[in-house]
Write a structure and sequence with these properties.
four-stranded antiparallel beta sheet, NADH Oxidase, alpha+beta
Length: 399
């Protein structure tokens, strides 16, 4: 047994949560380097674990980086099997979103985000890493109760490994749901970076300027898809079951959307913490914020498209593209947020056999050669985004 394996057991027993932060009364008060304090609670400790000396230059450092990647509804739908020279990435299908992600497409986008973080962190930890993805179609992946292998990273020690400059953004990247500055558009360099992501032909990024005809169609699709999801009782119920309204729920689950990360104003956030809010009120607030704040203030919106949105490697590639976009944007001080409602409705139509109206509507923005699988907004915000809770390494590393 290697020394790494011995250290790994010790780290996992510790849960990866208290290796390097000071705890006061059981509450965490570490601050990220963006200047916004991490929310209180042990559930936020993984945001500073990824670069801790106790796991630096081991495969666990890559896993810890993957564990704070973007993912749908903060379901963190991943498990990792770790050895000295490889990391296997599993889709934890038991953490699926039900009717909100009928084809586990978004789950695989999240896996792609985790993989991109791991690849980004590899060089800084002295590794050259290569990726192998599982073939096949998401339509054929009917398993919803056990882990399914999605990809494998092959690791090789490489003394001359060059750190990726985007690695510095790994702990700073958070989804920003606040208002953006409509007058401050993302720079040409970032737009060029976004368009260059499609150079390999696997993915393509479409960008829509505020006020353009295509952007108006994009905005209308997002608003109307939000309304459709709220009206679809199974969809909205499968979304609601992941919401964590209190610190007790956050500590118990260490996942899911939270009030602090919802982009609420200070007064609204205080009210929401003090008083119980009905599901109907929450749904209306989501629609109002999408329609009246998030879309109107965003100078830029976009779609990430692939050739086949239900191709497993394609979904992982699209997730990698989103994570790369977001890391690069974070280094530039930008704010980004997914707005995936229209594509969630495409999946729902497919699941229910109710037609292809949403598919046609989204296809009008990309053309017939590309299928959108991710939609987002981009800009700058004067309000820093909050971190989301994350599970311990012991919860996500297969023994």
């Amino acid at each position: 047994m290697t020394q790494f394996a011995s250290n790994r057991r010790d780290i996992l027993r510790a849960g990866g949560a208290t290796l390097f932060v000071a705890l006061a009364g059981g509450k965490l008060r570490a601050a990220n380097s963006a200047g916004r304090p991490l929310p209180e609670g042990d559930a936020y400790a993984p945001w500073t674990l990824w670069n801790d000396p106790s796991i630096r230059n081991t495969p666990l450092a890559l896993v810890a980086a993957g564990a704070i990647a973007a993912n749908p509804h903060d379901t963190q739908p991943w498990l990792f099997a770790v050895s000295d020279d490889a990391i296997e990435i599993f889709a934890d299908t038991s953490r699926n979103l039900g009717a909100m992600d009928a084809c586990v497409r978004e789950m695989h986008l999240g896996l792609g985000c985790a993989i991109e973080n791991m690849l980004t962190a590899a060089g800084a930890n002295g590794y050259a890493a290569s990726l192998e993805t599982a073939p096949g179609s998401l339509i054929d992946l009917t398993e919803r109760s056990r882990p399914v292998l999605a990809a494998r990273l092959r690791l090789a020690r490489f003394a001359q490994a060059i750190p990726d400059p985007r690695a510095a953004a790994i702990p700073l990247r958070h989804t920003n749901r606040y208002a953006y500055d409509l007058a401050k558009s993302p720079p040409a360099e970032w737009r060029d970076f976004a368009r260059a992501l499609g150079a390999d032909g696997e993915v393509r990024v479409f960008l829509f300027e505020a006020g353009s005809p295509q952007r108006r169609r994009f905005d209308a699709a997002v608003v109307e898809a939000t309304e459709a999801i709220i009206a679809d009782k199974p969809m909205i119920a499968d979304s609601d079951r992941w919401f964590r309204a209190s610190s007790r729920e956050i500590d118990a689950h260490r996942d899911g959307p939270t009030l602090d990360a919802a982009g609420l104003s200070t007064l609204t956030l205080i009210f929401a913490h003090l008083f119980s809010v009905s599901a109907e009120t929450s749904h209306k607030a989501w629609l109002d914020q999408t329609r009246d704040v998030q879309l109107p203030t965003a100078p830029l919106a976009g779609l990430i498209a692939v050739r086949d949105r239900y191709d497993r490697p394609g979904a992982i590639a699209a997730g990698r593209a989103w994570q790369r976009l977001h890391l690069d944007a974070t280094l530039r001080g930008m704010a980004l947020q997914p707005l995936n409602q229209p594509i969630e409705m495409i999946d729902r139509e497919r699941q229910t056999g109710s037609g292809a109206a949403w598919d046609r509507r989204v296809a009008a923005l990309t053309g017939d050669d590309w299928q959108a699988t991710f939609s987002f907004r981009a800009g700058y915000s004067s309000t820093a985004a909050s971190a989301s809770p994350r599970r311990r390494l012991a919860d996500i590393v297969k023994s």
